[in-house]
Amino acid sequence: ECTMSSHKCSASAQCTDTDGGFNCACNTGYTGGGSTCHDINECSKASCLNNANCTNTIGSFNCECPTTDLHCDANSYVNECYSNPCRNKATCYDDLNSTTYTCSCAHGYNGMN
């Protein structure tokens, strides 16, 4: 169904073929059941640190320091797991030393994200 576009997944979701059907999962930065996906407003939960201003973008967000704050560091740590990027009940582990994360699959699942 996925390759033939006969699925009803949102344009903001990934389609995965299954035996006799398909599954839809919203992309990183979105929430929903897969047939409908809505952008997560990461800024509503204070994603930026050190006085940086948060701007929500489609599927993500940006942090920018005010021009008057010389001590602000917009590139400070941000928890990449905040937007729930892992699918199918996987647990997200944020890498504190980079801008990456890893997903650990729930029992009975395997794969990426």
Explain how this protein is built.
This protein is mostly beta strands and 113 residues long. The chain contains no helices and 8 strands. The strands form 4 sheets. It has a two-stranded antiparallel ribbon. It has a two-stranded antiparallel ribbon with strand order 3-4. The protein is elongated. The model has no long low-confidence stretch (mean pLDDT 80).
Write the layout of secondary structure elements.
Elements lengths: L12 E6 L2 E6 L3 E3 L4 E3 L13 E5 L2 E5 L26 E4 L6 E4 L9
Brief overview:
The chain has 113 residues and is mainly beta. It contains no helices and eight strands. The two termini are 21 Å apart.
Number of strands: 8
Name the shape in a single word.
Answer: elongated
Uncertain stretches of 5 or more adjacent residues: none
Describe the oligomeric state of these chains in a short phrase.
single chain
Helix/strand order, N-terminal first = EEEEEEEE
Describe this protein with a few key phrases.
113 residues; mainly beta; two-stranded antiparallel ribbon
